[in-house]
Design a protein that fits this description.
- The complex is a heterodimer of chains A (311) and B (368).
- Chain A contains 13 helices and ten strands.
- The model of chain B has no long low-confidence stretch (mean pLDDT 90).
- Chain B folds into three domains: 124 residues, 3-Layer(aba) Sandwich (Rossmann fold); 66 residues; 165 residues, Rossmann fold.
- Chain B is an alpha/beta fold and 368 residues long.
- The chains are: A alpha/beta (311), B alpha/beta (368).
- Chains A and B meet through α4 and α12 of A and α4 and α14 of B.
Chain lengths: 311, 368
């Protein structure tokens, strides 16, 4: 069966896992094209006005790929462990998008609080496969996911570079800058106006949350008086605290209009950065964001950082 | 120690009773006003949801009046409410306030932390005083809700416009002063019959009010929506009451008891998983309203509320399949009175016309 995966939201986190799993079970995976203006416009017209930009984009990606496939794969990702949720919108996403789609939607519930066995049973049910096959395919999928994660961490790659098996374009730069934000903003070069290219042209090789081990991020997060109950925002907040430990020159936080969890950790992060005297630029992206505005703000921020550390 | 807490509808009445009965000094924040909202919005993150901003305004105004200890509830996610206290505490600290900020985690969450916070907060309070305080507070929680419910029944039927609101205000003020459970009970009985006695006509419509708990319960935040609808002759059935919420989520959840007629069953097919906050309840209650033949549903949500965005994305489907009109109203610090009134009037007019012509072709109405 041809199964479509949207190049949106958790694609940047879990693509190797799900694509390997589906392929190992004998399906063909079709990925939606990289985000473009048409996908954005389609998503904006399909989704609720107040939905955040990444969710709107996801509607657009699903619509862009649905005609070419027999089914769409959009897991309902609830939790990756005890007390660790994803954003409520991701939990409800399959139900939100379903009325707008023509193709069949495959949405296994991924809730690791209930254990791996339950997950295998769920996947077997949704994908119409035998439990034994799912278990074997999942083990293979986990290996490729771990390989992907390690490539990002150890070779300091972006997800796209890691997926392409690409070589490292990371180097020693003039300024040490930490990037914060959800992977679907940091690595979608259409949404962020190709932030990486912009920085690398200026000999800046930004750090990303994916360049640190989960253990390191968790250790940094333990500084907070109360544990964060969102997994992804925990990664962002943890990375922010690591950047402060690593004494970066500046932090750029990409967030999207109307992002709920980001509003909370963005504030905590800004207060902490202020306390450490580290400049933090918050760039808020929405469907109206223009390239000129973003670049002007980035340039001003970089100029300011260069003046602060004249070395 | 001078204790304060954030407002949410009429929560101040039972909270004050509880704290005073336990022998603590209480400084409730002044009633939520435009100033509260302005203060809160100024210092809160832009995309934080409205309740966080209003809470913050409440704290700032209570601190101005001399409060030095703030108590707040926690949570286990995924709704942002569970992290409100942490963010609010940091904001107050960054503004230079040296107050104590105690966060009570729900018993189903971090029980150790809850016990530690209780021990810190209630030092010197005897268990007996605590039980007495709990009992009177619970009586008042229920009393407020009963009076409120009676007022929602009476208002669309009242002979003299505005008489219900006036009487309710008096009754709540009296309830606030009541010092024994017996008095509270008597007041509820008398109060509800007084409210019922105001009725003389029949309501034009009956609407169900669904949505996020804070904006549903707090008349300042929802621009007195229940009262406005009542004055238009609409009987409003609120789907959330605080005493019911406490019973269900704090007591029954802790004891792991699932009440009957649960939300997941009603929402199935539309929303198949919990999404935190009241998202699932919103969808379930809309389905229920359709099956119980309500004339329509008003859905309230704070701007950027994640669970309600999920619900609002799904309500159009519920509306067309269950054949029930839904008006979604999103509230934030910029919500204007005239805009809201116009929308409510248009919605009510449309439903009245439909009702007269017999129900056909009803659908979603939303300018959210």
């Amino acid at each position: 069966m041809k199964i479509g995966i949207p190049r949106a939201l958790l694609y940047y986190d879990h693509y190797p896992l799900w694509s390997t799993l589906l392929e190992a079970l004998g399906h063909e995976v079709v990925l939606s094209p990289p985000t473009n203006k048409a996908i954005l416009n389609r998503g904006v017209s399909l989704a609720l006005d107040e939905a955040c930009l990444p969710v709107k984009i996801c509607y657009g990606h699903l619509a862009a790929v649905e005609d070419r496939v027999a089914a769409l794969f959009l897991p309902r990702t609830i939790s990756q462990g005890p007390g660790m949720y994803l954003c409520p919108k991701l939990m409800g996403l399959p139900d939100m998008v379903e009325p707008t789609l023509g193709a069949k939607l495959l949405s296994p519930v991924v809730d690791l609080r209930r254990g791996e066995r339950q997950l295998f049973r769920e996947l077997a049910g949704v994908l119409g496969a035998k439990l034994r096959e799912v278990r074997r395919a999942f083990a293979q999928a986990q290996r490729s996911q771990e390989f992907f994660r390690r490539a990002m961490q150890e070779q300091k790659l972006t997800p796209q570079e890691a997926l392409a098996g690409g070589s490292c374009s990371f180097g020693e730069g003039r300024l040490k800058i930490g990037l914060l934000g959800h992977p679907y903003l940091l690595y979608d070069s259409f949404l962020n106006m190709d932030l990486f290219a912009f920085l690398r042209e200026r000999q800046i090789f930004p750090l990303t949350p994916q360049m640190f081990s989960p253990q390191r991020l968790q250790a940094a997060l333990a500084q907070l008086p109360k544990k964060l109950f969102w997994l992804q925002e925990g990664e962002i907040m943890g990375a922010g605290l690591v950047y402060l430990e690593e004494k970066v020159d500046g932090i750029i936080h990409l967030s999207s209009f109307g992002c709920g969890p980001d509003a909370m950790i963005g504030e905590l992060m800004a207060l902490r950065a202020q306390g450490c005297g580290v400049p933090l630029l918050e760039l808020n992206l929405d469907e109206q964001t223009g390239q000129g505005g973003i670049e002007t703000r980035l340039e001003a921020f970089l100029d300011m950082l260069k003046r602060r550390c004249p070395a | 120690m001078k204790v304060t807490f954030p407002h949410m509808g009429t929560i101040a009445i039972p909270m004050k009773a509880f704290l005073q009965e336990a022998g603590l000094e209480v400084i409730p924040p002044p009633p939520t006003s435009k100033r509260t909202l302005t203060l809160g919005s100024r210092h809160a993150p832009e995309f934080a949801c409205l309740p966080l901003k209003i809470n913050l305004g409440n704290y700032l105004e209570a601190l101005e009046r001399g409060a030095d200890t703030i108590i707040m509830a926690g949570g286990v996610g995924p709704c942002r409410f569970g992290y409100y206290g942490e963010v609010q505490r940091e904001i107050l600290r960054s503004l230079g306030y040296e107050c104590r900020f105690l966060i009570f985690e729900p018993p189903g969450g971090d029980l150790g932390s809850l016990m530690a916070t209780c021990r810190e907060f209630f030092t010197g309070v005897t268990p007996r005083a605590l039980i007495r305080a709990g009992r009177i507070a619970w009586a008042k929680f229920q009393a407020v809700d009963k009076l409120w419910q009676a007022s929602l029944w009476a208002r669309p039927r009242e002979g003299t416009p505005g008489s219900t609101t006036g009487l309710l205000r008096e009754l709540l003020a009296k309830l606030d002063r009541a010092s024994s459970i017996a008095t509270v009970r008597q007041q509820v009985q008398e109060g509800t019959s007084q409210l019922r006695a105001l009725a003389s006509g029949e309501p034009r419509l009956s609407l169900a009010l669904v949505g996020e708990i804070y904006v549903v319960l707090d008349p300042f935040t929802n621009q007195e929506l229940e009262e406005r609808l009542g004055l238009m002759g609409v009987e409003v059935h609120r789907t959330i009451y605080l005493s019911e919420w406490i019973r269900r989520h704090l007591v029954l959840d802790f004891l792991r008891i699932q009440p009957k007629g649960s939300a997941p069953a009603l929402a199935r097919g539309y929303l198949n998983h919990k999404v935190g906050g009241h998202g699932l309840e919103t969808v379930a209650n809309t389905v229920l309203a359709a099956r119980r033949n309500f004339d329509g549903v008003v859905h309230l949500a704070p701007f950027t509320c994640m669970p309600e965005i999920v619900a609002a994305s799904i309500l159009p489907t519920v509306s067309s399949q269950e054949n029930i009109p839904v008006l979604t109203v999103v509230l934030d610090e910029h919500t204007g009175e005239a805009g809201l009134v116009t929308r409510l009037e248009a919605f009510v007019d449309m439903l009245v016309r439909q009702k007269r012509q017999g129900r056909q072709n009803r659908g979603l109405l939303s300018w959210a």
